[in-house]
C-alpha cells in the first residue's frame, strides 16, 4: 500500500458531559399568588352557595318567563309505582334517572329528599336560601374586586401583554401545542416557564369571557338592575336567559378548574404548588439528546510539503 492509498477509520465524536443542574426560578410574584388563592376561595364558595340558591327552583328557561313545561333543564323528583322518590334530570326532551345525586338525594337522617343538588355541594347549609344568597353576593364582590386588581396589576407590570397575550409565533405553533397536550408531553427546562398558546387562550377566555360574562349575567338577573341594564337583559333574551347563561358559565369555570388541576397533577404537582405558594419554580436541565457516533473518513496521504526559502509563496491577488 503506497502513501497515496486511502484508508477508512472510524472515530466516535462524543459530547462533553453536561454540567447543567436544576435551579429555582422566581416565577410568580407575591400579588399574583395572593390574588390566585383569593380566586380559588371566592369561586369555590360562589359555586356552592349558587347551587344552594339554584335548589330553590332547580329549573332553567330561555326568555323572560318561567312557564311550567318550558324548561330546558330540570332537576326534579317524582314517585315511582311503589311510592319511592326518584330523581329525574331532564335536558330538552331527554331525561335520565339520577336518584341519589340530582333531583333526589339523602337528607341529614339518611332518608331520600327532593333536592336539585345534594346537600354536600351546597353552603352554608342544606336549605338556607337567605344565607346562601348573602354568601353568594359577598364572595361575588370579592371575585369582582380581586379580578379588577389582577387586571390592573397585570397591565401595569406588563404581565398580561408579555406572558398571556399570544404572539404570532404562538399562533404558528398551535398545532404542535395541541399534539403535545394530546400526548401528555409537557415542556421541560426554561421552556416550562413560558405559557403555550393553549394556556394563553384558556386564561384569556377565563378572564375576559367567563369572568366578565358571569358577573354581567348575575347582575342582569337582579330585578333591581332591570332599569339600569335593560339593554343587556334584552340582548340576551330576558332574565331567565341571563340565569341560564350564568349557570352555564359557572360550569364552564368548573370544567376549566378540572382541566387545570389535571395538568398540575401530570406536570409535577409539588413543583407547581411550590411555585404558586412560594413563587419559586424548579427548572430541570434539558437532557442532551443521544449522539450517534460520527464516521470520519481519514486518508493516509503524503506529508504536506515543507515551506522553505526555496518554496515560493503565492499571494492572493484579491487581497490588498
Helices and strands in order, then pairings?
Layout: E1 23-26, H1 30-55, E2 59-60, E3 73-79, E4 85-91, E5 94-97, E6 103-106, E7 112-115, H2 129-156, H3 159-164, H4 168-172, H5 174-182, H6 197-220, H7 230-236, H8 239-266, H9 269-277, E8 280-283
Antiparallel strand pairs: 1-8, 2-3, 3-4, 4-5, 6-7
Helix pairs in contact: 1-2, 6-8
Question: What does this protein structure show overall?
Answer:
The structure is a single chain. The protein has helices at 30-55, 129-156, 159-164, 168-172, 174-182, 197-220, 230-236, 239-266, 269-277; strands at residues 23-26, 59-60, 73-79, 85-91, 94-97, 103-106, 112-115, 280-283. The chain is of the alpha+beta class. Strands 2-3-4-5 form a four-stranded antiparallel β-sheet. It has a two-stranded antiparallel sheet with strand order 1-8. A hairpin with a 5-residue loop joins strand 6 and strand 7 (112-115). It starts with 22 loop residues before the first strand and ends in a 37-residue tail after the last strand.
